[in-house]
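=== RUN LOG ===
request id: a7f3
mode: sequence -> structure
chains: 1
length: 289
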Amino acid sequence: MPGVVETTNTFATNDVITSSALNNIIDQTLFTSDALSGGTLALVSGKMKVATSGITSNELATNAVTTSAIASSTSATSGVTYAKMQYAANMKALGNVSGSLGVVSEVSILDEDDMVSDSATSLATQQSIKAYTDTKVAAVITRRTAVATTSGTSVDFTSIPSTVKRITVMFDAVSNSGGDEYIIQIGDAGGVETTAYVSQSSDRSGDQTATNGFIISRGNSSSSVNYGTIIINNFSGNIWTSFGNLSRGSTVASSTGSKTLSATLDRIRITTAGGANTFDAGQVNIMYE
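=== RESULT ===
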């Protein structure tokens, strides 16, 4: 009856076992089909090999393959390489966003310039982050177009967004025909308000107050040329406060004030305390944030 191996060398009675005979047995021995059981191994010309589809889940059961059997990576082509990893769908990355230790899965990569999805479990592209940031930074401070103060008695800036919390009013070489003091008035959808301001302007020669607007200059004359900046801040609700400096020649007037509007601010007016003198030089502008 055939055994599990076949050899080209056989011994007769009283044959001498030589090293050559043993080498031949080792070198030329082939396995027979009786050597196999199951489908994990197969015979090819009497030699064993792993059968096609011979490795099943049984051979890969828990603890059957250990991480120590996988070579550590020392480059992009060693260890577990990219080619050995699962393919991922377009705009997906492999990760875990469960909030705890868990199975790796596909995580979405979103390319949204407005970040509209507001997702706590998705990634963003570099381009979308830049676009979103650029838009927000540009929207933080808005500068309007400068208006010449060479005629008229007032300059109005309207359509100021309801979300604005700070307004900067800038004066560049502004003068008027009669030397009246300058005031800033604020308003809402009902129009510019001209009463109930608490304001004061001071320079080294004295103080001056006004209730019809934020007074921002003192001791002005028809030849005065004014430069400076006034800041108007939202204190809370519809309460607004002001502070700043306006200079004419070697004199600087500092001012402060407060005003509560009847509704949300949406406009600002730059005019004179008396309202009769006309502008005759310079320009004004505002920024808001």
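=== NOTES ===
The two ends are 98 Å apart (CA to CA).
The longest strand covers residues 166-176.
=== END ===
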